[in-house]
Amino acid sequence: MKLDEFFVTGEPLVYGGMVSIVLVTSAVIFLLTYFKRWGWLWREWLTTVDHKKIGIMYILSALAMLFRGGMDALMMRIQLAFPNMNFLNAQHYDEIFTTHGTIMIIFMAMPFLIGLMNIIVPLQIGARDFAFPFVNALSFWSFFFGAMLFNISFVIGGSPDAGWTSYTPLSGAAMSPGPGQNFYLMGLQLSGIGTLATGINLMVTILKMRAPGMKLFKMPIFTWSTLVTCFIIIFAFPILTVALALLTIDRIFGSQFFTVTGEGMPMMWANLFWMWGHPEVYIVILPAFGIFSEVIATFARKRLFGYHAMVWSMILIAGLSFLVWVHHFFTMGAGAFVNSVFSVSTMLIAVPTGVKIFNWLATLYKSKIEFTTPMMWSLAFIPSFVLGGVTGVMLGMAAADYQFHNSYFLIAHFHYVLIAGTVFACFAGLEYWYPKMFGHKLNERIGKLAFWFFVIGFHVTFFPQYFVGLDGMPRRVFYIIPEWMPLNVISTVGAFGMGVGFAIFVFNIYYSYRNSEREKTGDSWDGRTLEWATPTPVPFYNFATVPHADKYDAFLDMKEKGETTFEEEKLEPIHMPSNTGQPIIMMAIAAFASFALIFEWITLAVIGLVGVLIMMGIRSFDYDEGYHVEVDEIKRIEREARGL
Amino acid sequence: MSAHELKSGPLEYRTQEGRMSILGFWIFLAAEVVLFSTLFATYAVLYGRTADAPVPGELFEPGIVLVMTFLLLTSSFTCGIAIHHMRRGSVKGLMTWLIITLILGLGFLGFEIYEFVHYSHEGATLQSSAFWSAFYTLAGTHGVHVTLGIGWAVLLLIQLAKRGLTTVTSRKVFIISLYWHFLDVIWIFIFTSVYLIGMVV
Ligand code: HEM
Ligand SMILES: [Cu+2]
Q1: What is the CATH number of domain B61-122+136-200?
Q2: At what angle do helices A180-208 and B16-45 cross, to 10 degrees?
């Protein structure tokens, strides 16, 4: 392969991207060397198995991905603002909407939420780490390298361009030759393995490692949402694994699953993809529901209304989410009967969702609301998400969907649920738990400024899209006609408003790091659940003594009784797992193998695969049993953290 | 994370780590069930789509498949005996029966490879039609699982020889036995829904 086939050439924006990648990488390398931080980076971060640090790495990567996906979005909005724009050509536009969608769902929304789960769930249930800390590190690195693999495609080999849904036969070898689509397949495959492992890991953690006394129906609601999400992950992700594998075999080894020759069946991809894809949208919304529930209960200063109903509606949603996938292709000829069945099941989902909305409202009812930034995101979520849900039900009516399908109406629907649901929740969760992670709050005034820019920008961007959709503007076009211009201009203005909001949000991280008052207690918001019982920053073993938690809102109960997580007479040595470089090495080799497969260098891919197997063998022989933190050491750490 | 160890009960269940790993593996098997179900569904959907390639009824031979089934089912049985020996605390019995299990597994694999080579000589390859793509992928995925299982078990045999029976080694062996039985169950489904149906239709 010639070098100019390997690198993407001839595109000014891509050259700009290459230059900035080189610059940023050199700057990072320079800084690390100059400040002699390589050892620190390796010891403290790259080899860590601590769930809190892994969570922070997830969130940092997710923010970076939000930036990348956001740049894609702004470029699309510029191109669509006016008729006859020549900012992006058709090919480039196709690549950008593909990477935008894939990155936002797979490499932004999920990792952000998984990052929050990583940090918070063990703390909420009174555990000292995950059930399998090693596997947790493995999961993170598989996501990280999968994301890097996918992102590198725009400078090396060329980006995928068949949409985040990657429908066959378009995405097959005949119509999309070259490495682009392979980047999509392998990037998702690699990170998907990690997601599945995290699902299993968190499920075992929640089932087996709760504090004594904490029954399932006494768990904090965010932990419940995580448990239900894990269930969906475990039953949905293997479907994606198979779908991706089959398409990979089609493209690289010439099989005929989704081809139009050899009696292949392109429609089967749409089915497999959405059998995973619809549960996937619930994987990214249920944890968001959990976050909002926590935030609302805390700042309404009330017990969450209808806890049991909340939990059961999540379980119901999880079950139903597997029974609606056909609503994504009502128009592709399934027939009236099938469409009707799936239409009804789709509309059924609105019922448990509505139950949750009313429970949040009832929690707020007659409460003394404290308008902190996380609470503002939650309050903005409720009406915005209702708009998204109602239009979802409209789309769910099969007959009407013939009109809405693949138009900007659909685009507006899923951005109303994904941004007002998932993204608002990520921001709310990050700001809410930020003091727990870093020992200081994010500045409230700047936070609110970011909030207003983002929320108003969001509505300005997407509300007009419902109407331009009804006016007939289809999705995935790179030009507009003059009739659609006014609403599109508004949309673009709003998008830049969101961009400003995001920039302020990130600036706030820096500003607060410099200026915020440091937390002295661990209980920044007068919280209700166990994560607030530890000192801040959280000692690496989390709980010096694990509390007895037999009440809902366990920490509230502890505060009343005057208990802490540092009962000196009950101290015992704590067993902790050791750091290890194996996860990052194993996944780096897996990424190498995937990269080779993307370019169809089979020998290299096999060598990489053997490398991964060897790493697994090494792991099998690794009998490292971790170490113990002695009582004196615990006393010293706790006294210092608590200022005793 | 606690080091509290029970004094009685099966060795592999005595530590918290052991119990969690076993539960984790059961959940992993649930994910595997979904994975294979998806492959079975794919196979069912693409059934009969042989294009110009031979139809399965022309190629499938009851003899070989019966031998394969016999080998794998027996290996599941010997694997059970191995665990029985483990529970009795006999490392030697455990290792002997585990090795017998692996030999049976290798026999199964040998026949499967022979079968695949034979079919492709007859013009039914991965590339020749949607049906054959589905067939090779379904049976092949099972075969790859068996191969990995054999490699994994060999590593465990070395560890058993070095360390004897501990809470850790017994947990590992118990887990691989779950895996092995699982592959057997999958094979029964492949045998009936792929081979038996393929032969009569
Ligand atoms: C009341 C609940 C909901 C209903 C009834 C609903 C219904 C629908 C329907 C019928 C479609 C397909 C429309 C078409 O292609 O013509 C759709 C698309 C979509 N929905 Fe929803 N939805 C709901 C909630 C959600 C949530 C909570 C999310 C994610 C957080 C979500 C994300 C999406 C996405 C990403 C798509 C479009 C995918 C694509 O084609 O690229 N939806 N929804
Ligand atoms: Cu859906």
Answers
A1: 1.20.120.80
A2: 140
